[in-house]
Write a structure and sequence with these properties.
The structure is a single chain. The chain has five helices and no strands. It is an all-alpha fold. The chain has one domain. The two termini are 22 Å apart. The relative contact order is 0.12. The mean pLDDT is 92.
Length: 138
C-alpha cells in the first residue's frame, strides 16, 4: 500500500470514529436515561444522571474530539491513533474479561467486536505513522 493510501485510510478512520463518538456522546449528554437503559444502567438520582452524562457523554465527546483533531496535523493523528488504540483496548479487554467471569451476552459481544476492530485498525495505522516518522527524521 502506498503512503497516500494509508493516509487516506487514516483520515477516514479518524473521521468516522470521531463522528460516531461525538454523536454518541452528545446524545448521551442530552438523553442520559435513554442511553442508560440501552447500557443496562439507570440513574437513581441527579448524581447518577450526571455520572452517565459525564462518563458516557463527556468522556466519549472528548474521545471524538481527539479523533477529529487527528485530522489537523500528523502529530495530532499519532496522538488520536494512540488514544483510540489504548482507550478502545482498555474497554475491549475489560469487556472480554468480565464476560469470561460472568457469562457472555450478545450485546456485549457485538460491542467487543467493534472495539476490537478499532484497536486493530488504530494499531496498524499507528505502526505505519511511526514508521513514516522514523523515516522522515533520519
Amino acid at each position: 500500500m502506498t503512503d497516500r493510501t494509508i493516509l487516506t485510510i487514516e483520515r477516514v478512520f479518524l473521521a468516522v470514529i470521531g463522528t460516531i463518538f461525538m454523536a454518541s456522546g452528545i446524545f448521551t449528554f442530552f438523553e442520559p436515561h435513554t442511553m442508560g437503559e440501552a447500557l443496562g444502567i439507570m440513574p437513581m438520582n441527579a448524581s447518577g444522571e450526571t455520572e452517565i452524562r459525564a462518563t458516557y457523554g463527556g468522556l466519549v465527546v472528548g474521545s471524538g474530539l481527539l479523533a477529529l483533531a487527528g485530522l489537523s496535523s500528523r502529530l495530532m493523528a499519532v496522538a488520536a491513533l494512540a488514544g483510540t488504540f489504548f482507550g478502545a483496548g482498555g474497554l475491549m479487554s475489560t469487556r472480554i474479561i468480565i464476560q469470561a467471569m460472568e457469562g457472555f451476552t450478545i450485546n456485549q459481544g457485538i460491542v467487543a467486536v467493534f472495539e476490537l476492530s478499532m484497536v486493530v485498525v488504530a494499531f496498524l495505522l499507528l505502526k505505519a505513522a511511526m514508521r513514516r516518522a522514523s523515516v522522515n527524521t533520519t
